[in-house]
Amino acid sequence: MISYFAYSRRAKGKLGTGESNMNMTNSEYNDYIKDMAPGSPVAKDLVKAFVVGGLICCLGQGLSVAYTQYAHLPREDAATAVSMTLICLSALLTGLNVYDKMARFAGAGTLVPITGFANAVVSPALEFKTDAGDIIGQTQMRALH
């Protein structure tokens, strides 16, 4: 990797002359960005997102079958129960910091199903709880003294 200044000098034919030239054309700047940007493993990311998202959907389908066959729920009620189960499971995994690790691994594969919604709701609540806990704890300490 070369620095912006070295790249600029090379683009202007002045590499090694010690001059600092920040005037680049748009095409030179685009070439610079392409050279400096890290490569993205798109195929690998797509496969991970597809597999994890598919596993979440398979879990939902398995729960639907279990609710209709074993709990003898009508199909519409089973769909509601599946949604509630997936939301609760996602909220639990978010609270245990497991869902965030899974999302870092799978990317968009965890955002598309209903579990991504639950994660988006619970994560800010956990952050607020941490901040509010500090405030409430300080208020209680002042009240006791």
Count up the domains: 2
Overall pLDDT level? 78
Please tally the β strands and state the result. 0
Tell me about the biggest sheet? none
Distance between the termini: 60 Å
Task: Set down the secondary structure blueprint.
Elements: H1 4-11, H2 26-36, H3 42-69, H4 75-95, H5 98-106, H6 114-144
Concise account of the structure shown:
With 145 residues, the chain is mainly α.
Protein architecture, described:
- With 145 residues, the chain is an all-alpha fold.
- It has 6 helices and no strands.
- It folds into 2 domains: 4-36, no CATH class; 42-143, no CATH class.
- 74% of the residues lie in helices and 0% in strands.
- Helix 4 crosses helix 6.
- The longest helix is centred in the C-terminal third of the chain and has 31 residues, at 114-144.
- The termini are far apart.
- Residues 13-20 have low confidence and may be disordered.
Descriptors:
145 residues; mainly alpha; 74% helix; 2 domains
